[in-house]
Fold:
Amino acid sequence: MTMNKLISIGKIVNFHGIKGEVKMGFTSGKESLIRSLKKVFIFVDDKKETFDVESVRFHKNFAIVKLNGINSINDVMRIKGLLVHVNEETLKNSLDVDEFLINDLIGLDVFDTEGQKVGVVSEIGDNRASNLIEIKKNNGLKFLVPFVKEWIPVVDIDAKRIVVKMTNGIDTSVESAEN
Structure:
């Protein structure tokens, strides 16, 4: 039996009311994912507990979630501050066409628009404006490319490859760091 990988999608920040509803923080724009949840996992004292989701509604910037078995403020206090997880497959099924899990990008082969292999995705970073993909060239040197459609027109997870436009000032011609 294969273990399903769990991905964090939110955090229990507090109780809401007195009947066991939780106030959950989550990434803005993911309301449809949160609304579609049927089952979540929370690690309480390092032990995975499974909760069926009874209801979801939104208030201000939070999801108000009723979990089966959480029926009082005391029950909520037991899970307050903890991360809420779903199976990776649940998350993948909710991704939009141009959305990817970061872990799925690492290790992909990188090609230029001419079809020449440039290297491999070695890491993903963030510069606030966008994610950055670190590409390790065949010669071991690394360079960064913003993870935006203009620079990376093709991401094909199934074929394990991405295409990078090697223009717009990306200089990958440096052969050594000591000039």
